[in-house]
């Protein structure tokens, strides 16, 4: 188990053998994507003659592209493959006739020491020209990583957005009846593969969140029947109490540089926000207003913190400087606002809006303007940003059963997409882009 | 709720936090299966429940639980009467401690409900202290919305889940 985890971190994907195409970026398939674009993703040939791996890689790329909502992948099932030589020199007419606007092709080369290189090409079928190419060298066991990197290359080149498909998700895996639910931290690739549990379920755990480098988690656990914040090393599994003693600490998040953790501490019926070094030290108090100040989240530049407080009488969103100064309310719509999270691009804050018998995920600017609601259900909450700031993952609780399910939604709208978890899930945290 | 199985990660926590009375038996940390079959929640490794004493509290004080209105943590007259009876019981049973545990209904966000549960637990604890129970014998925990007793998604169920429970522990 741990060796698999380590592999993800310790084996960087080397860009090998190909220089990035330096041609102009403007092509007719870029920009203004409204309807999903048809992209052919045929099975890839392999230097070893093994057709299985090239088909599996194409399946992962196809699935990744479909998950973005921007593409309608064609293949690998139902369309023909191509020869090794045609991987970099496609017969455009074939793919035009298949109805594709773009083609993802490539090949798999088996190297020494159990390594493979995935050569990934993207072509504009309509214009008959290459848009991008890159090679990804990985251990053969990590072929999925290479496929995700190829899909990210395609997504990024065609959408103009930063990549986000080669990422992981941690969340609270929930099993068992509503009044005795077992909650474990689980980690998986963002397409649901390589799923494993990081805590055994003896103690209830909540709100796991990645460090900015993706190598640590901060979360809350009831181990010892004492709810407190812990930091876990994802690779080794070791964990450490954040604030020594029995103080009730919760709602933790890393600062953008990973050096600090901001969290809530409750005492005597009052909850305030504190910040402490990620490796320990004396917590520094940032809020002191009577009320429940919680769910703090740093801006990506580290200069400000958004949080929620009920100091006005209902849960509302506030922004303050990193040192606690200049606390200013930013939410003024009807109902209540909760669990704000600052976008990694800085220009939006995702939140949970409570009102009208529903809990909905929305976004607004850090100044409080431009509010848009992205979901509509009985109870959606707990937003977490994709590293490119284009998608928000959250969890949806079913009325009655209380069963929780992870979803992701584009900030540009559209239907939320259910995340492929093997069991119920809540409190997702989207990792940064894998190394 | 199961009791006192202390394994693996819990041991780390015990080392990390200064405990007055460490458990008598601390098994060595062992490798946990990734997905142990039949795993049940066990959050009570540190504060040990005393079921017989708990039953005695319920019998003598009338109830171990007080209830709250939506998003509120003030005690009504009935709750105060219950807690006053609980205080008398704690004073008559000086060998045990109380873990006052606050809960919220499911219709709130997770982290806010943790804060709300702490307010409720604290309100009950403060009343017990005002009625003579030494503060050093009482601790508080918030379970937020994580431990409902009523399963429905309706006002009747939520009213039962908005509560503070006095759990007798040693």
Can you walk me through this structure?
The complex is a heterodimer of chains A (435) and B (170). With 435 residues, chain A is mainly β. Chain A has 2 domains: 2-159, TolB, N-terminal domain (Rossmann fold, 3-Layer(aba) Sandwich), CATH 3.40.50.10070; 168-430, 6 Propeller (Neuraminidase). Chain A has 4 helices and 30 strands. In chain A, the strands form 7 sheets. Chain A has a 6-stranded mixed beta sheet, covered by helices on one side. A 4-stranded antiparallel beta sheet of chain A has the order 9-8-7-30, with no helix packed on it. In chain A, strand 10 and strand 11 form a beta hairpin. Mean pLDDT of chain A is 91; it is low at 1-33. With 170 residues, chain B is an alpha+beta fold. Chain B folds into 2 domains: 1-45, no CATH class; 51-169, 2-Layer Sandwich (60s Ribosomal Protein L30, Chain: A). Chain B is built from 5 helices and 4 strands, in the order ααβαβαβαβ. Chain B has helices at 9-16, 51-61, 77-92, 110-130, 155-161, and strands spanning 65-67, 97-103, 138-144, 163-169. In chain B, strand 2 (97-103), helix 4 (110-130) and strand 3 (138-144) form a beta-alpha-beta unit. Chain B is globular and about 40 Å long. At the A-B interface, strand 8, strand 9, strand 13 and strand 14 of A face helix 1, helix 4 and strand 3 of B. Chain A: Residues 1-19 form the signal peptide. Chain A: The Tol-Pal system is composed of five core proteins: the inner membrane proteins TolA, TolQ and TolR, the periplasmic protein TolB and the outer membrane protein Pal. They form a network linking the inner and outer membranes and the peptidoglycan layer. Chain A: One of its GO terms (cellular component) is periplasmic space. Chain A: One of its GO terms (biological process) is protein import. Chain A: Keywords: Cell cycle, Cell division, Periplasm, Signal.
């Amino acid at each position: 188990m741990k060796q698999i985890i380590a592999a993800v971190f310790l084996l960087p994907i080397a860009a090998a053998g190909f220089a990035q195409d330096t041609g102009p970026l403007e092509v007719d398939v870029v920009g203004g994507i409204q309807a999903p674009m048809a992209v052919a993703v045929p099975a890839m040939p392999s230097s070893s003659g093994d057709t299985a791996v090239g088909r599996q890689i194409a399946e992962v790329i196809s699935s990744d592209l479909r998950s973005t909502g921007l593409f309608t992948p064609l293949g690998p099932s139902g369309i023909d493959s191509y020869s090794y030589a045609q991987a970099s020199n496609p017969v455009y007419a074939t793919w035009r006739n298949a109805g594709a606007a773009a083609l993802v092709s490539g090949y798999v080369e088996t190297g020494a020491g159990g390594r493979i290189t995935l050569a990934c090409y993207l072509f504009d079928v309509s214009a008959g020209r290459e848009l991008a190419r890159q090679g990804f060298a990985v251990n053969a066991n990590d072929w999925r990583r290479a496929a995700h990197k190829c899909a990210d290359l395609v997504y990024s080149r065609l959408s103009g957005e930063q990549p986000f498909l080669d990422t992981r998700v941690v969340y609270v895996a929930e099993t068992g009846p509503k009044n005795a639910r077992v909650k474990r931290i689980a980690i998986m690739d963002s397409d649901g593969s390589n799923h494993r549990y990081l805590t055994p379920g003896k103690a209830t755990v909540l709100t796991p969140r990645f460090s900015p480098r993706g190598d640590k988690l901060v979360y809350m656990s009831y181990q010892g029947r004492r709810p407190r914040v812990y930091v876990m090393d994802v690779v080794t599994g070791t964990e450490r109490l954040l604030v020594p003693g029995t103080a009730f600490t919760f709602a933790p998040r890393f600062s953008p540089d990973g050096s600090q953790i901001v969290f809530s501490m409750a005492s005597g019926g009052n909850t305030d926000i504190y910040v402490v070094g990620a490796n320990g030290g004396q917590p520094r108090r940032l809020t002191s207003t009577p009320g429940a100040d919680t769910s703090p989240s740093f801006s990506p530049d580290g200069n400000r913190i958004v949080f929620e407080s009920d100091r006005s009488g209902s849960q509302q969103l506030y922004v303050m400087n990193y040192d606690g100064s200049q606390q200013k309310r930013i939410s003024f719509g009807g109902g209540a606002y909760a669990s704000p999270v600052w976008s990694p691009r800085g220009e939006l804050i995702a939140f949970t809006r409570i009102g009208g018998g529903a809990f909905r995920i929305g976004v607004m600017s850090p100044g409080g303007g431009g509010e848009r609601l992205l979901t509509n259900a009985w109870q959606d909450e707990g937003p977490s940003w994709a590293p490119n700031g284009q998608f928000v993952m959250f969890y949806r609780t079913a009325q009655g059963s209380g069963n929780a399910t992870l979803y992701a939604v584009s900030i540009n709208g559209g239907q939320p997409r259910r995340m492929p978890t093997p069991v119920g899930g809540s409190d997702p945290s989207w990792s940064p882009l894998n190394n | 709720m199961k009791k006192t199985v202390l394994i693996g990660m819990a041991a780390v926590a015990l080392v990390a936090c200064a405990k007055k009375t460490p458990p008598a038996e601390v098994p060595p940390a062992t490798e946990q299966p990734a997905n142990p079959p039949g795993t049940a929640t066990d959050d009570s490794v540190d504060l040990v429940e005393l079921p017989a004493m708990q039953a005695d509290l319920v019998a003598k004080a009338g109830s171990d639980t007080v209830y709250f209105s939506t998003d509120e943590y003030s005690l009504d007259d009935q709750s105060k009467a219950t807690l006053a009876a609980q205080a008398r019981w704690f004073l008559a049973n000086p060998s045990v401690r109380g873990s006052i545990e606050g809960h919220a209904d499911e219709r709130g966000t997770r982290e806010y409900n943790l804060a709300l549960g702490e307010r409720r637990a604290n309100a009950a604890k403060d009343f017990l202290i005002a009625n003579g129970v030494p503060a050093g014998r009482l601790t508080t925990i918030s379970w937020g919305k994580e431990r409902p007793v009523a399963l429905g998604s309706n006002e009747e169920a939520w009213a039962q889940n908005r509560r503070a429970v006095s759990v007798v522990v040693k």
